[in-house]
Specification:
By secondary structure, the chain is α/β, with parallel strands linked by helices. It has a domain of 132 residues. Helices cover 25% and strands 13% of the residues.
Amino acid sequence: MNWLALDASAPNGFRAFPPGQAALFRGRSNMLTVPRLNFLRLNSSRRAGVRTKSARTTLAAAGAAVLVAASAVPAPALPTTAALPTKASAQAAAATKTPGPPSGTKPGTSAHSLRTPVTGENFYFVMADRFSNGNTANDQGGLGSDPMVSGFDPTRKGFYNGGDLNGLLDKIDYIQGLGTTAIWLTPSFKNKAVQPEDNSAGYHGYWVTDFTQIDPHLGTNAELKALIDEAHSRGMKVYFDIITNHTADVIGYKEGARTGYVSKDREPYRTASGNAFDDRDFAGQADFPKLDAGTSFPYTPVLDPAEQHLKVPAWLNDPTLYHNRGDTTFAGENSFYGDFFGLDDLFTEHPTVVAGMTDIYETWIRDFGVDGFRIDTMKHVNDEFWQQFGPDVLAYAREHGKDEFFMFGEVFDTSKSFTSQFTTRNRMQAVLDFPFQDAARNFASKSQNAKALETFFAADDWYTDADDIGSKLHSPPGVCCEPFSLKWMREPPAAEARGSFV
């Protein structure tokens, strides 16, 4: 097998190298880069006569794939629920196609590589509600037959459709048979079933009301534990998609619902006694000023009497633990402090919120053995939160035997100077590599030449920090993508060598 590498100096933008020569180039295979050389691996029967157009087609296909990895097993197109194979056929497939050993011992993985927690993992990214219905008794989540109450209506894409954790467990032979080594679940905590203002249901998992319970539409905590235990018995990991930025839309404002953002220049935060202060001066600190719902915020938070104790844990029902500044426009100051379409934006600068969120997710590690987190909306949360949350959760996981525990965050931005801040200054392990997605798409479908990709990869030192001593030197990186939005993940380093991970 030869390697095909992007090379701006070659006539068609690519250059082929036999394995021996490829080893001279810093050893990072199966990506798409020039100076470092990350390689696109092609079968020998396909490498002859490669043209720029066909190479672009190959890269475009890679950009649209659900899974592209150094150790990936070619998989058929994702099936619909109705087309899923039977358990018997899945068992037969699993018998002939099994995942490799744990990532630390996978062939081609250097024993001392600092990226081993996810290097070579083949992720199966799945939304349980849209996968397979293993128990029709939980379809309505115990809320009755009215779709505008239960959120269940399989005829409408914006509502629960009936898939659940039992359905995943029933099809685990099929999932493993694809070569899967890690199952990545979309957010699965209990959601506000319907938000009437949105004429939609919480099937997606981003309207959380109870961070300690699996959504009843998907099953029970015991059923989740059974799924995780079964996956572990087969050598597979289970990753959670988690949220720290906001909860469901429960808090209203006396001045009106879903109102426009009010800046801190116009209306600063005030202590309970009415003195103006800048929250950034106290972020994450024990001496954070005491707040009062009636005097501290530009909008006065109010709760429907029926929902005053809706959220779990109970500390989430304190309206002073939210920013209460109105809806965000996703730009500037309000991208940190504003509500996402009315969703209650947590005051993540407050030490109670930092401690509370840390405790929530450490509990899922301790009681259920979760193997890692993908973290939603990371760029909308202040730096000080991550500087405490990340190291504390990682240390807790390792204390509980999770030596390969791994977290990666969604930082939706295409600038390395920005995305790299989360893995260096903010001490998180990895981020989704949207800059790579942008560069790859520009080459594959927007006719940019390979020189632009060379420039992109040459800037990877943005991710280098004081403890980055081996992440660029050993082993082929695992590559996967977030299929709903093609959010690429690449080069996943461990805590000791943080970097970009698509």
